[in-house]
Amino acid sequence: MTEHAPHHPHPAPRPHRPVPAAPESAPVLVAVAHGSRDPQALRTVLALLDRVRELRPGLDVRLGHIELNAPLLPETLDGLRGADAVLVPLLLGRGHHVKRDLPATAAAAPAVRSRIAAPLGPHPLLVEALYGRLIDAGWDPADRGGRHTAVVLAAAGSRDPASARDTRHTARLLAERLGVPVVPAYASAATPTVPAALRALAARGRHRAFVASYFTAPGRFAGACAAAVPHRAAAPLGAHPAMARLVLHRYDQALSAGAPADTVTLLASA
Description:
This protein is α/β, with parallel strands linked by helices. About 35% of the residues lie in helices and about 15% in strands. It is built from eight helices and seven strands, in the order E-H-E-H-E-H-E-H-E-H-E-H-E-H-H.
């Protein structure tokens, strides 16, 4: 006689894995956004920080802007007198704001023991977010290797050559992920512009080009880049889950660097 295994109509529930909470002594995470007159920018950044809080319950997460929006970073730091803080730039590469403005602002707030984390890019998690936004915009993974398809990586632009190198690095990572050419282009201060990059790709037979928005949040530059090909332009990275993970990665990276808590330290991107 064959013995039958007992029937279980419902699978046993999986054990719940609680999200690790931040220790009470953890330094404050101060997310530093650029700021924009576009009201969607602030809403987008706040949504991103809500995701960060969900991933790290109990972590004190604050926001400070470089310009245009309240609270400005000096105001945020003024409210943290006597505290330890890690400033995480919500910026995608090295440039004047990361190299000059943030260290100067932190140094002007000596009552806060500050570390400055690396900017968000370049990093594979950014590529994950860019890929997700392109899928949302209609990118078909079947286009991998296609002779008529390409992507323009639209960035703000900077006169700092390190910023351009960071954007090119991200473009290479995204090209590896997509399997098609990815051309960096800029809204200001650098060339080519997004329309010029699209024309150059079309001249090479790549008429089906998408624009990947290399911006954390909506704003004037992001909108101008998207307008070049509105039917195939991805949204800014915003509150994509990979972005929240990356913010916490930069925060943890700054803490693990072992810099003294009473110094202002700018970490290299990695």
